[in-house]
Amino acid sequence: EVQLVESGGGLEQPGRSLRLSCAASGFTFDDYAMHWVRQVPGKGLEWVAGLSWNSDSMAYADSVKGRFTISRDNAKNSLYLHMNSLRAEDTALYYCAKERTFGSWTEGYGFDAWGQGTMVTVS
Amino acid sequence: DIQLTQSPSFLSASVGDRVTIACRASQDISNYLAWYQQKPGKAPQFLIYAASTLQSGVPSRFSGSGSGTEFTLTISSLQPEDFATYYCQQFNSYPRTFGQGTKVESK
């Protein structure tokens, strides 16, 4: 069974940093691109960042570009989101999500597995 | 960036109704579109990919269609467990934008 478990959220002050982690199991982690998606409670989904299976390619939403860094450690089956210069508008539930298709990056076919999310509050 | 606009934003329906949700892209995305269902307090659930292919395990009352810039999600006969919010997402390019969501409520 595919499982994604996020951790590292919490309350942090504006301007400070936080690192989120996502532990993956139940699939060959280094075969798939991985992503972070966030959701302000009661609002819609916002894609935040994505990273290819081999870390060669990455992409960010304009809202976080230059402040957030996505990384992965395939040996540890883990995905990370390094969040710097936090702002109040970064307050959200952060989900880790798995790309559906083996090896895909440029085009894709959906996120077929999601974690339960970790809450980040910037205040 | 590609914008996705869903309509309607809210929909009131009854069990047994046929429900259709539209998703319009600001530019041609071929068939690189996915649909998700999200219930309160839960992570999104993957329904459809490549605009019209049902993800394994998803009930056949769900279907998707469209290509280019116009897409639809249809629930042929709404069931009690289908009251939720639905999102489309494009996979043609980055950023991987979502539609704003459509909340399906009980009439």
Average pLDDT of chain B: 98
Helix count from the secondary structure assignment of chain B: 0
Strand residue percentage of chain A: over 45%
User: Uncertain runs of chain B with pLDDT below 50, 5 residues or more?
Assistant: none
Low-confidence runs of chain A: none
> Which value, in Å, is the CA radius of gyration of chain A?
13 Å
Distance between the termini of chain A: 37 Å
- SS-derived structural category of chain B: mainly beta
Percent helix range of chain A: under 10%
The SS-based structural class of chain A is mainly beta
The count of β-strands of chain B is: 10
Largest sheet of chain B: 6 strands, mixed
How much beta of chain B, percentage-wise? over 45%
Strand-and-helix sequence of chain A, N→C? Answer: EEEEEEEEEEE
Distance between the termini of chain B: 36 Å
Task: Please summarize what this structure is.
The complex is a heterodimer of chains A (123) and B (107). Chain A is an all-beta fold.
